[in-house]
Amino acid sequence: MKIKAAVIGVGIQGEEHVKAYKTYPLVDLVAIADINEKRLNQISSKYSIQGKYTDYREMIEREQLDVVSVVTPDFLHFEPVIYALKNDVNVIVEKPLATSIEEAEEMVNLAKSKKLMLFVDFANRWNPPFAIAKERISNGELGAPLYAYFRLSDTKYVPFKMLSWASKTSVVFFLMSHTADLACWIFDDRVSSVYAFASKKYLKSRGVDTYDYVVAVLEFSRGGKAVLESAWILPESLPSIVDFRAEILCEEGSIFIEDFSQGIEVASTKYSYPRYASGYLINRKYVGFTREAIHHAVECLIEKKEPIVTPDDALHNIKVLGSIVKSIEEGQKVPVL
After folding, report:
1. pLDDT for 243-273, tens place per residue?
2. Which fold has domain 3-121?
3. Which of 2, 42, 5 is CA-nearest to residue 25?
4. What is the pLDDT of residue 150?
5. Range(s) of the chain covered by CATH 3.40.50.720
6. Where are the alpha helices (DSSP H) in the chain?
7. What are the φ/ψ torsions at residue 160 (nearest 5 degrees)?
8. pLDDT per position as a tens digit, 141-178
């Protein structure tokens, strides 16, 4: 018996969720919702999806769903997640869970009280280099991690052209949600305190009121440390809009990850690094780590297992991100409560 799924928000990342559901044999993607009617009709036609709604509430009420993906902008997750949970629908939501600790706590508490899945798509846990790093550290061959550096930055294309809502979020929520989760997962620990600093000059002067860059030092409860660095001011002349790198120093070894070029460089009218790992159509089949993350959540839902991303992981992530913002504003180290 197939489970019935739907997607709220079918923009760039929402379409990835659509593709993931369409490639899982035990899922019937019955509907999508988006306030942009042109985009709604385009995705509905492209993927032969019967139900299409401009109001997600109507969709949830009518479609008798088992699971819904919420893929709205960062700051608009709360209402559709809460509405779905109140209507007894399991939820897969894009990272970050929320942009405030209070909203995140309410979502997590509601999901727990109703015994429903609330799975945040920290898809980089399925990104091969990071998954291998986690495996090699967990099996003990490198000893305990002592220090890590994660850089995840975008070119100016993202705040100026890709996101119409860049001023309503920041690299803290849009990018560091990934790296903060990876750090906690790889260290297998919780963050106890944060010190961060940032610049809000270049983008703000050009009409996008958000941070140019943020650097955060995370201190873990068992003594490890990680530095996260994210920026939205890399030049558009770079061959990829995303620059992703990591170094993990352990007691008995180290891991170095370069996820910038992903192993392929193409020179034509411009020089580019095609980004295929998160999701790509290869030999007419959709593959990638976003697909694997969503398939994992669906599999756990069907088999009644706990996913490797828990609601408590998602809530701690928001507490870390909120502490980063607080540290920037106060100019001092702050505890993660």
Report:
1. 999 999 999 999 999 999 999 999 999 999 9
2. Rossmann fold (3.40.50)
3. 2
4. 98
5. 3-121
6. 12-22, 37-46, 56-63, 78-86, 101-114, 128-138, 157, 171-174, 176-187, 202-205, 289-303, 311-330
7. -90, -30
8. 999 999 999 999 999 999 999 999 999 999 999 999 99
For the chain, give every residue range classified as CATH 3.30.360.10: 125-280+316-335
The total number of residues shown for the chain amounts to 337
- In the prediction, which pLDDT does 1 show? 75
Q: What are the tokens at 169? A: 């979020």
Contacts of 24 (CB under 8 A, 6+ apart): 294, 295, 298
pTM listed for this prediction: 0.96
Q: Which two tokens stand for residue 64?
A: 């008798």
**Euclidean distance between CA atoms 328 and 326, whole angstroms:** 5
Q: What would the two tokens of residue 201 be?
A: 């000059």
Buried b (16+ CB within 10 A) or exposed e, 221-246: eeebbbbbbbbbbbeeebebbbbbeb
What is the strand order of the sheet 3-8 is part of? Answer: 51-53, 27-33, 3-8, 67-70, 90-94, 118-121
